[in-house]
């Protein structure tokens, strides 16, 4: 709408209101104010508009006219705030488009598919709480009969976490030993993180190598949420224990390795703390509370199981995700 | 608690009626001119969203009391298509884009309390409260 | 200042203005408006304030009073814009602090120092046009008598460029051959960039290996701004030619290698296009225009030379940097 | 071109004088009330920066002509400490932080042309132009 037009409209609405009063005109006034704002009419011009329209309808004394000079003076400063608004918005838009590209780049850092072995069934659910994820997982396969899996949580969010994640991915890719030892890998990654990252930032990780011949999972842990081993024979979940300092804390850290064996039907469940961290009403969810949800879905495929657990937990916390969520299920068939 | 005033929103004139009712109740409760206008404005936004984007809906206005405080509560409900992404609709910037949910961040900031529920295909329910100081 | 207080002040200023008029009161009004804004007094309340103060000083007719109801209605919408301003500002602050961390992380990706050889003098100037740089350089030394140098420009700015840069750094670090061949390095980096990056983004790079025994520089180019070789004997600069597709365009690309020999006194000047790209008044600077600036500083140390060239070019374009600026000077003593 | 009006800025009263002069010239040129106030506001900001942060400085106001258009040009100059980071001072958000250069983005948006030069330890020079439509 043209400015001229807006002026005329304001006159008409104000005159009608002065004549008849009534909510109708005020409603039209509110609608018009949106047009005025959209048309970049600053508040000081609204004041002028008002005085102009008023003068056409009624006697305006010299004193009241003078008072509008003061009001204009005041409103110019308010106009500055509104003009600033426009520039803030456009800056925000630009920043957000940068975020979007970063999110797309992050996507490409995640593996396209899960390792494929005839006697293994693997499922993954990975959902960021916000645009940019701080959770990361990776599968690396360099040997015929083994693959490695990493699951990590970067403490810190947004863009810095994304930068850290890309660093970890390439540090992992660059680790040039054909048969990866989990303790050595964490040792290597710890040095990279420690050297390159802000001291306030750190990373928790579980890194393991699954031997598909012997069905043994050898892993090391850096301050990460413990996973579970499901034993099919006695239908019980036990913690995948392991101690180790988070990555990025000290330059030289050792990570001890643990090993578990999987029988047919057994399962590994790896996850980040976002799976557990949820508030239900006023109560905090506990790690033990998870077990019935895991038990309930046994028998499905690994992917279906992971999907259903995610959906049921999300429902539980009223569709709100407070933290990034990652769960990997490795099922020996 | 009194029975709430209820205005079905079918035509644009119903928006005006709802505004007027809100303004009147605010005046009865002793709110000043600005608060009367703010409540009318908030009701207007909610009613207009119903008028523009839902086939039918209503605005209920109620005087409420809690811990000795008196306030005005407004519930706007419709059986429309629902807001797909509430989080997005409550973000600034979205409000100027027009469309369902436009103006909601502004309404929220005008009021003391604001709750919204929406389900795709089932409709939207917004409740706002403004306490008298 | 309290809201009550602001109200009283406004009354006083307005009354004084209505009594005497004068610029003094308007000036006080402008100062007050800043306090009003800072005190989160929305414009609709200013309107109320105004009417209140006016009513105390003079007769306000019913009609004029009614007109203020309409003005209030209009100003509530303007108030919404100003209230939004506050939330936009705080969001921007948060985004900017993320940017700052990212900038700090970027800093750690640049080498701490230049290679140290008795018969070489090396200088570097690296200045981002904005907070986050899209230029990158690196020195890698894996052999006793040679080092590698990379200089790159990521097409694309801000956060996505930073992510891409961290990727390139780690891809470079991960390249596990002790004696780096420039063509092979670019081949490797091209695959990493191509696989991991948005198709709209690409990277130009010059990568070279300087053999400090034979004083030969062997390099390959991926669509990058050519450097110069300065020949001390005839005091001439020649282009460091080299053709090659930018990184990230095609999955399989070959990069041919070139080699130049440096005599004592000779110099290599490597740079990004940001050194050349500048507008002087209405005219664009050309690559040839650079030569007198290079000639003028010969005789200084490599770092001093690089610094002075940067300062003189910056002055030329009125202290504005339109693109990230990187120049590396390698001088055989 | 006429000789410009020049107001040395030493006291707060000089700010008022500069404002008044700007307003008067704007009025003489036939600008409306809003433009008069905007020019006064812009001059006020520039003069206040001199008053608060520089030992001495001046505001020059001049009527200019170019390609048949008439406008008002204001030059505010001081020999103060200078603005260290002009780019930063011209960013939004900085304007509310107070300190040297505060309000400059607001002034820029009020005017048609805005140029600033500043050298650490040597002072600052801001020139603004507002053309008559
Ligand atoms: Mn995290
Ligand atoms: Mn987490
Ligand atoms: Mn670039
Ligand atoms: Mn460039």
Q: What this model shows, in words?
A:
Chains A, C: Keywords: Hydrolase. Chains A, C: This is Phosphoserine phosphatase. Chains A, C: Residues 117-332 form the PPM-type phosphatase domain. Chains A, C: One of its GO terms (molecular function) is phosphatase activity. Chains A, C: It comes from Brevibacillus fluminis. The complex is a heterotetramer, with 2 copies of chain A (333 residues) and 2 copies of chain B (133 residues). Chain A is α+β, with helices and mostly antiparallel strands and 333 residues long. Chain A folds into 2 domains: 3-93, KaiA/RbsU domain (Methyltransferase, Methionine Synthase (B12-binding Domains), Chain A, domain 1), CATH 1.10.1240; 110-332, Phosphatase 2c, domain 1 (4-Layer Sandwich). Helix content of chain A is 45%, strand content 23%. In chain A, the strands form 3 sheets. In chain A, strands 1-12-9-6-7 form a 5-stranded antiparallel beta sheet, covered by helices on one side. In chain A, a hairpin with a 2-residue loop joins strand 10 (279-280) and strand 11 (283-284). The longest helix of chain A has 48 residues, at 62-109. Chain A is elongated. Chain A starts with a helix and ends with a strand. The model of chain A has no long low-confidence stretch (mean pLDDT 89). With 133 residues, chain B is of the alpha+beta class. The longest helix of chain B has 21 residues, at 33-53. The mean pLDDT of chain B is 87. In chain B, a hairpin with a 2-residue loop joins strand 2 (57-66) and strand 3 (69-78). Chain B has one domain: Histidine kinase-like ATPase, C-terminal domain (Heat Shock Protein 90, 2-Layer Sandwich). Helices cover 37% and strands 30% of the residues of chain B. Chain B is globular and about 40 Å long. Classes of the chains: A alpha+beta (333), B alpha+beta (133). Bound molecules: manganese (II) ion (MN) (4 copies). Residues 134, 153-155, 324 of chain C line the site of one manganese (II) ion (MN).
